[in-house]
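Components:
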Amino acid sequence: MEKKFDVNVNPRKRPFSMQLDLSKFEPASDAEKAQQDRMKPSTTFFKDGIKRLSSNVIAMICFAVIVVIALMAIIIPEVWPYHYEEQLGLGDKWGSVDATYKNLKPFQYGQTELDKIAAGEEVFPHVFGTDSLGRDYFARVIFGARVSLAIGLFASLIVLVIGMIYGSISGYAGGKVDLVMMRIVDIIYSLPDMLMIILLATVLNASGLKDAIMGTVLADIGINMLSIFIVFGLLYWVGMARLIRGQVLSIKQQEYVLAAQSVGASTGRIIKKHLLPNCMSVIIISTALQIPSAIFTESFLSFLGLGVEAPMPSLGSLASEALGGINSFAYLLWFPALTIFLIVLSFNLFGNGLRDAFDPKLRN
Amino acid sequence: MSILEVRDLHTSFFTKAGEVKAVNGVSFDVDRGKVLGIVGESGSGKSVTAYSILQILTYPGKIVSGSVKLHGEELVGCSEDTIRKVRGNRISIIFQDPMTSLNPVYTVGNQLMEAIMLHTDRDKDEAFDRAVEMLDLVGINEPHKRVKQYPYELSGGMRQRVMIAMALACEPDILIADEPTTALDVTIQAQILELMQKLQRELGMAIIMITHDLGVIASMCDDVIVMYAGKVCEKGTADDIFYSPKHEYTKGLIKSIPYGSKKKGKLIPIAGSPVDVLNLPSGCAFSPRCNCAMKVCLDTPPIRNNFSPTHYASCWQSTYEAIKKGDVTLEQVQEELNSEECRQADSPFEGGEADE
Amino acid sequence: MGSKLLKYILKRFILMIVTIWLIITITFFVMQATPGGPFNSEKAISEEQMAAMEAKFGLDKPLMQQYGIYLLNVVQLEFGSSIKMRGRTVIEIIGDGFKTSGKIGLIAAVLAIVSGVFFGALAAVNRGRWGDKIIQVLSTAFVATPSFIISTILLLIFCVQWQVFPANGQTAAGLILPIFTLSLYPMAYITRLERSSLLDVLGQDYIRTARAKGVSKKKVLFKHALKNALIPVITYAGPMVAYIVTGSLVVEKIFGVAGLGDKLINGITARDYPVIMGLTIFLAVLIVVATFICDMLYKVVDPRIEFK
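Structure:
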């Protein structure tokens, strides 16, 4: 665009400028008009949401962090040269006990390994050092992340399934059934969850359940982790149930559902086309936000000694084990603490991003 | 004589998605004791114009350029104290939705007295008496009881009366009414309009009536501005607008008024929906919806055509007719277009726009 | 309106009583389900003690009768004696611990609310600027870190490295850090809550009305916006009490404060069932009652609330 022009020059000769002639005053065709029509392009709800989400930088970074941590937690324990339970220096091929493996700082080596290195062998470094029993700490932290993520995921799934079934029955049935079901939810909701969890976990720990599951698959999971799941299944579903019920109720009354009914759409179609897609975003968002809260709860229980069973590590139990030697071996706390922090923060921020992108109520 | 002069006002909202030019070069005058109507559909920039005058835009809105003069005193860029002494004192405003316009946690009296004590020397008791007096003036029964009530205890019409009382408490020169009846029942609408007319006669203030209801305009206004996509497309007296509308958009608006039993015949709606303000067409903003759109309308912004000292419209149709009649030549139009283009290119805030 | 309010209060009160009853009942049956029952600890108790307990709790009677006796005892605040701490009744232990914990909790709550509201408002009025960003990052970080990790880090920095505060929570100076730690999470939460709530309120029509009247920016914020923006914070007060109660378990343990949380943890580690039962019931009832009071307060503050 020109910034200056000379008034004395015939305007017709100036380049780039609009040139008027009478042909310009012919009626425009519809096609020409349509070209000028700068309406917002219409997109589907889902596409629009994905677009919003992918333009949210923080949410995408958090998503990447979650994916990276999850992949590491899945793959690394399988390929890492050290096992999380393996006490290095115990029963190695020399048959002697090497006590120098205990409490190694990051990238330090035990005496046996130093000998090997001196002999020209390659030794895989202890990236995070070792703990007080001479176990490779990186293997433990990564496996702990796997356990914590698994707990978060399964606990959220339990909450989701129970809450969804209960909430949708209550919302769909309505009337007296709804009233009674919601009173029950009200009462469970007002129970102080943490205290109840402590109580249940304490008792489940001491109960005969341990013998009952001996030898089954459940034994591998461990009694403590099982009690965490039971506790979640008993107490934590109420929030989700309320949410789903509210969603079902409000969607039931929406004009578009009435409209669909009035043109004779079947119940199945209404559920498939209207209820489910509209509940979906709420369900996904609150599940994403449930995962960090489950990881939190597990780490809290680990601190109380009610978390996963030794020698299996979780991030919470690693951090609380590290408290004992905190003065001399602070790095033992930092690694699991930072991992919890990263996971919880990423899930929280990603969940918020999801909510901003997909929650129809927040759109303007 | 005019008490308020608005010149080439530009107000934009700087959103994440881009700059939204809500008000894009609006100019008008408000005369003492007259009623100026601003019509236009939702999103045409009527309300933002009003908020810009009082500088009560919300984040991320900002006045980009232009001038607003009250009694010759420039308000754009003035100090916070200056504009505060104007708000509610010399220019007052009432809003569209009375249900949400009053603070729910304070009594009606408290909010009325706040406005009174801000701009006058009255003490608490005098302000209270004045509040009761104002409630009485706007036709609220039992004002002594109402003054102690919370907004949620009043009906919508009643709350709008409170809003009017609050706006008039300091006897302003200008009252801006931003769609004051849109959110109300039809019967209440008539009452509120009647009240405003009565008060205008009694107190002699000027009113800027913002509405999308041409009926309201016809019954109340002396002058009318028609806005579309942040620009004034036609301005004139009420008679000019209703009896000889020039802009295609104005014509469309008038054709879409239901005339009751007076006239038979079809209502003709304006096709299409309002433009996407983030992405305005390069020519006349109305052209994609205009039945008489010409090629020129699509790529060149229209120039102003004056029909009388009070009446003008920015529409290529009028220009074309003038050319056909021989009132202007193509060269003159071209000249004007170039000077307009040059002015736009020189102003910093329009910089990159002309590339389109 | 008055009768509606009364009806609402009554309804909430009944819900509270049912909840408390449920807590007591759950506690009883859960403890019954533990192997050997709460009073037959594998650790030796003297014969006389055992006999006294049996008489008090009617352990030889059928289950439902035991439950009845238990309910009656709990209502009279009779939780029995600690198994591990000889000669101390549970109610004594509660009274003892509550003196410290109550004080810490109350100060932490006040600190959390005051500074949370302050920082939240500060962030909201500086929206998009550096101050807002720093406050947002910090509050998000604190919400995402388990309290025992924050406690340990603070202990490490202030007590071990710099030695500003004693690491032992028995003295008054030693209580500063536990109080601060305890208030961090609710403070961060309230900051976020207050920020978004204030931003929401600042976008409301009545704020525009106030500005259009010529009210100064400061007064718009303090008189018109803040009061409305505080309402959501009140709804968080209930969950905050719950957080502070459970948070005190961790904080008291780490900082060595002899409060209720510390006693409950010791009880759990030592499987001291009467202590666990008594403390759980006491703390749970505390939370439920606090939530009830907050709910009532919420209705009083906001005149718009409809009573369903």
